[in-house]
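Bumping with the actual sequence this time:
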Amino acid sequence: MNALQRNDELGAIEILPEEVPVSMPELPPRLVINTVQQFKAISDPIRSRILGIIQNQPATAKQIADRLGASPGAIGHHLHVLEAAGLAQVIARRITRGIVANYYTRTARIFTYELPPEVAGNASIGLEIMTQAREELAEALVTIEEDPLRTDSFPHIRLSPERAGVYFERLEALVNDILHETPDPNGEVYGIFVSMFKAPAYLQGPGMTIPSEDRETEEGDL
């Protein structure tokens, strides 16, 4: 997006008076990340945090900067990178203390990765998402005093491909339900991490042991 095109698009957005609140629009449930530009834009840690903030509420560069302890100029630069990659958008403009402020949101509730190998390289998107979820939980444990609804579990179960498929579909349906939930402007933001994967090789092994194998083990222990 060039500067002229961006100015034309911004000019088409009505400037709201200072007393008019900016509400969260209904975003598409998903956006596919499949280009180098998108991948580079979303891989930056600061930009990832910005996308988290504007996932559930519109915010200006100044508001985001205050929450992240950064300068508005630096956040504005990151927002322009995200906007150029199609990951962030200006959804409203409002006069604030005599200055026209742009309000940003993401372009979708969540981003789905479909990156070709030449783009992703050796990076594991799933592992990066898990790492981000771990970092958010660690920060929440320090900054959130009470969270009665927090739950954690990490079960393992031996399943047939058919039964594994059943649980996969149920988890996918749960995520879709969450994505189509109407956000409560007076509610709190909850992080929900969902993952299903085959456990590592050391946890696999045979489903049943042969009695002769048990006897060999017992004899070896004598």
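The tokens above came from a reply further down the thread. The mean pLDDT is 88.
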